[in-house]
Design brief:
The protein is built from 13 helices and 9 strands. The protein has 334 residues and is of the alpha/beta class. The longest helix is centred in the N-terminal third of the chain and has 19 residues. The radius of gyration is 20 Å and the shape is globular.
């Protein structure tokens, strides 16, 4: 594949949230991801952006996002420069606007992973080059592209598939999965205590999209009712990066009924796959897992180890697809 095969409509565009793209746009990026993945598996090089340079700004660290961007950039022939919180003065000694203008003079594209959506939007406004959202508090669009590609691969399509998100649906993953499902004509269910449902303004925006695509949105507190006949059960950690440790006790009390267990998967049916954006607290092999075990006596949190390592779990296919979909976004927008 070379640059001439990329749809010119994407050239120079930012990738900040899926709300900015049509269903057809998202479908195109998924098709491009699949093509690039097939080429990589076949050993076919696609160094279509030879000699370009991209900046990776990480105010929140991540194994998958960093590795996905760096490997994808290398596959496309580009050089990636990683800047962690100690490697940049952004927002401390230098404004976001000034940082964007400086980096835009030196790099061909900029990835940002950090806090408020307003920060990545400001970067995009002033950089003059494509900016990609690697995660903000509100949205995680590159993850959702990987999730949609994974669902397509395992279930044969997206339209009409029922995805149940269990846990805290107020932030980036719950928001972004709801948007992605609405855009692609899927049935989205948030399953949690009521105080953990997405914000009403975003729900209304997604309901308007759903009317056009045939998607449905549901918000259910009963886990067995919510997960009946689900095609996908999805969860994430209960406490996000940057939140204080003090919130663990409240989240555990509120969200323990929404842990993904074998009973939940059985209730959904044999067609159902389990997904998680990782990292996951499914055992005691992490520092946080051990700490939670000592304080609260839990040997797992949002998902049991039995489900996480079951044949229905596709979490590592999903993790790999971060790289293929991120590659497609960079290939298309540069």
């Amino acid at each position: 594949m070379d640059k001439s095969s990329i749809d010119a409509k994407f050239h120079g565009k930012n990738f900040l949230k899926l709300l900015d793209f049509t269903s057809e746009d998202i479908g195109y990026l998924l098709d491009l991801s699949a093509k690039l993945k097939a080429e990589k598996k076949a050993g076919i090089a696609h160094r279509m952006h030879e000699g370009k340079n991209v900046a990776l700004l990480f105010e929140k660290t991540s194994t998958r996002t960093r590795c996905a961007f760096e490997v994808a950039a290398a596959d496309l022939g580009m050089n990636a420069v990683y800047l962690d919180p100690s490697g940049s003065q952004m927002g401390k000694k230098e404004s976001i606007e000034d940082t964007a203008k400086v980096l835009g003079r030196m790099f061909d594209g900029i990835e940002y992973r950090g806090f408020g959506q307003d920060l990545v939007e400001t970067l995009a406004k002033y950089a003059g080059v494509p900016v990609w959202n690697g995660l903000t508090n509100e949205f995680h669009p590159t993850q959702i592209l990987a999730d949609l590609l994974t669902i397509q691969e395992h279930l044969g399509g997206l339209k009409g598939k029922k995805l149940v998100y269990m846990g805290d649906a107020r932030y980036n993953m719950g928001n972004s999965l709801m948007v992605g499902c609405a855009k692609m004509g899927m049935d989205f269910v948030a399953c949690s205590a009521r105080q953990y449902f997405p914000a009403e303004a975003l729900v209304k925006e997604c309901q308007a999209i759903a009317k056009k695509t045939g998607a449905t949105l549901s918000f259910i507190t009963d886990p067995m009712k919510a997960t009946k006949d689900a095609d996908v059960i999805y969860t994430d950690v209960w406490v996000s990066m940057g939140e204080p440790a003090e919130v663990w006790e409240q989240r555990i009390n509120d969200l323990l009924p929404y842990r993904v267990t074998s009973d939940i998967m059985e209730n959904a049916g044999p067609q159902c796959i389990f997904m998680h954006c990782l990292p996951s607290f499914h055992d005691l092999n992490t520092t946080i897992g051990k700490d939670i075990n000592e304080k609260f006596g839990l040997d797992c949190m949002e998902v049991t180890d039995e489900v996480f390592n079951s044949p229905q779990s596709v979490v590592f296919d999903e993790a790999e697809n971060r790289m293929h979909t991120i590659k497609a976004v960079m290939a298309a927008t540069l």
